[in-house]
Amino acid sequence: MNRRGFLGRFTLCSLSLATPWAGWLNAQDSSRVPTSPKPIPEPHFPDRFHLFVWRNWELVNTERLAQVLETTTEKILEIGTSMGLPKKIELSENQLRRIYITVIRQNWHILSEEQLIELLGWTREHYEYVLKEDDFLWIKLGSVKPHCERLRYESPSLDVRQRAAEIKKIVRTSFGPSLDEAGEPAFTFVGDLSAV
To answer: What are phi and psi of 113, to 5 degrees?
Structure first.
């Protein structure tokens, strides 16, 4: 095939695709900002507050959890105990520095962006930089943050306390006394590998 024939066929092919391509662009409506989806529901927890405490029990220190939820450390510990969680551990600065991706993932459908940034102890600029530049994190999270209302501590109702007691029974029956045994501290393997 000569150059003139190739260009003629290419032009014909391009024109035949122009209409469907324009239709696809209209369907995508690239000028419209995508609306934030609703968070994934977690109906097995009595409320979002209990879900938050459960998910962050071993990821974030008690003082920071209380600060984000505008309550006291005693209330946080009370909620954890009501669900049968083991003794609350306190993480070192080194552990907290390394665990941020898990913290983001675990709270993506629970906290507003402002509260998530506060939970991490970051600035908004650092938060946005990490989402954009750290291992395609924004893409892995779905490229959109679900809309989450600000979460604050509320005294649990009777129904909520009963559901927490059911969770505690399941947890304690399933794991028994081994749940209270001290495990290996987070990221111990880093020191082990560095020592080799």
So the answer is: -60, -40
- Residue 173 main-chain phi, psi, to 5 deg: -70, -40
Q: 102-128 pLDDT, tens per residue? A: 999 999 999 999 999 999 999 999 999
CA-based torsion, 59, 103, 121, 147: positive or negative: negative
| Half-sphere exposure of residue 196: CA atoms within 13 angstroms, side-chain side | 4
pLDDT at 169: 97
Closest C-alpha to 113, from 148, 138, 141: 148
Structure tokens at 103: 């913290």
- Taking only the tens place, the pLDDT of each residue in 21-57 is 444 444 444 344 457 899 999 999 999 999 999 999 9
CA distances from 84 to 121, 159, 169 (A): 28, 17, 7
For residue 156, the Cα-to-chain-centroid distance in whole angstroms is 24
Q: How far is CA 86 from CA 16, 57, 69, 82, 152, in A?
A: 65, 9, 21, 10, 23
The C-alpha atoms of residue 106 and residue 57 are separated, in whole angstroms, by: 11
Q: What is the pTM of this model?
A: 0.78
